[in-house]
Amino acid sequence: MPVAGHAASTKGPDTVADTAERVMDAVVNISTSQTVAPSRGVPTPELPPGSPFEEFFEEFFKRRQQQGEDQTPRRVSSLGSGFVIDPSGLIVTNNHVIADADEIYANFADGSKLKAELVGRDTKIDLALLKVTPEPGKTLKSVKFGDSDSLRVGDWVMAIGNPFGLGGTLTVGVISARNRDINSGPYDNFLQTDAAINRGNSGGPLFNMDGDVIGINTAIISPSGGSIGIGFAVPSNTATPVIAQLKEFGETRRGWIGVRIQQVTPDIAESLSLDKPHGALVGSVTDDGPAAKGGIKAGDVIVAFDGHEVKDMRSLPIIVADTPVDKEVDVVVVRRGKEETLKLVVGRLDEGDDTEATDETPKEQPDTTPAETTKMLGLEVSELTPELRTKFKIKDELKGVVIVSVEPNTPAADRGLVAGNLIVEVNQEATETPEDISKRIAELKADGRRSALLMISDAEGQVRFTALPID
């Protein structure tokens, strides 16, 4: 009997027909067209094996190659999905569905077709807001957003869209994972689902069992182009503030504080006396930016922002971006092992710039050895002399102890330290001579610490932190 009970509990909902009936008419097919210049060597479009159109396209393009290239401008069409969020005619879809389109149309379940105008788009989250004008006397069916934060892995969901141009199609699955980063943009925190999502589903809604939109289907992983059960949707709680801004301003107005951040690794957490790796480590602060004006310094670990926990480096840009511009917020930082609460006023991100940036490993600099050096931690270091400043092209205003060589196959080499880098601080204490470093390491060993936190600067002044073992 326990086996039968388990089977009953895992078979899924008995039916989603009632929910589907309520929301189906709010889902639309998005068709676009654009005029493109003639080009040579137009590739045959990729179609799923066995598609009824596969043989037709192969024959068509074979004739094109035999007849020579057509030099006339041509119209190109594409298909996607979307959904109505307001009876007045507001429709949400993906930006990539309508990008570069000359004309956009929304095709409704009853067979009607309305021309759509672009209200605004957001390339970073891949969303677009469209507007259609309903026919006189006709009210469009709309759906509302739900709370994506309430979803749990294993919750049932259904996707409705326009796969392969077939029209309104419903599939059912579960939430497979949350907060997925697929390297598509700076604010990745996708919902992952095994509900079948294919080409043409882009921009369509992902519903919970109450019929609320909890995601916008955006991407799939598929070697073949068809569903293999790995689809991704922008969470509704990420999308709704963006859509509200597009509706009000026709553009996004994201928060920005002006910091360069990096991940808190276990070694860095230990060197900063943190109980666990969490938060975002501030590598540098933009001059006269909101963070600088609020008192945030390089070496601070931001662990909370405006009442939201900063779990890791990736979560901070998302939280900041969703914070209203000009809002005064509390920022909790860990500085020298103690928590402090600072206040700052959130600025506005220039959409042409990066978000709160993350540090990158510096490029290798030519190796050179001065007359007097000291070896420690797998490094050969020297006081910064005028000759070394010139050889490594280090900016005049920078100070620190210069690394003149790095021993291969050491933690220092593994962490990307190279000749020409400067050690600016050791555990948030400034260093200008090798003796300063040696003294600080001895103090850390006496305190029972296993690693030292180094602030490293490249020749241009870009800084980052790394922890090196001192055992």
From TrEMBL:
Question: Residues that bind substrate, according to the entry?
Answer: 96, 126, 200-202
Name the InterPro entries on file: PDZ, PDZ_sf, Pept_S1C_Do, Peptidase_S1_PA, Peptidase_S1C
What superkingdom does the record give?
A: Bacteria
The yes or no answer to whether the keyword Repeat is present is yes
Catalytic residues of the enzyme: 96 (charge relay system), 126 (charge relay system), 202 (charge relay system)
What one GO molecular function would you report for this record? serine-type endopeptidase activity
Report the subcellular localization: Periplasm
Q: Where is this region: Disordered?
A: 347-370
User: Hydrolase: is it a keyword of this entry?
Assistant: yes
A Gene Ontology biological process term: proteolysis
The main enzyme category here is hydrolase
Q: Where is the PDZ domain?
A: 246-337, 377-471
Q: State the GO CC annotations.
A: periplasmic space
For this protein, the record's Pfam families field holds: PDZ, PDZ_2, Trypsin_2
Please provide the record's keywords in A-Z order.
Hydrolase, Periplasm, Protease, Repeat, Serine protease, Signal, Stress response
Q: Which reaction does it catalyse?
A: Acts on substrates that are at least partially unfolded. The cleavage site P1 residue is normally between a pair of hydrophobic residues, such as Val-|-Val
Assigned EC number: 3.4.21.107
Family according to the record: Belongs to the peptidase S1C family.
Protein name according to UniProt: Probable periplasmic serine endoprotease DegP-like
Q: Which organism's genome codes for this protein?
A: Ancylobacter mangrovi
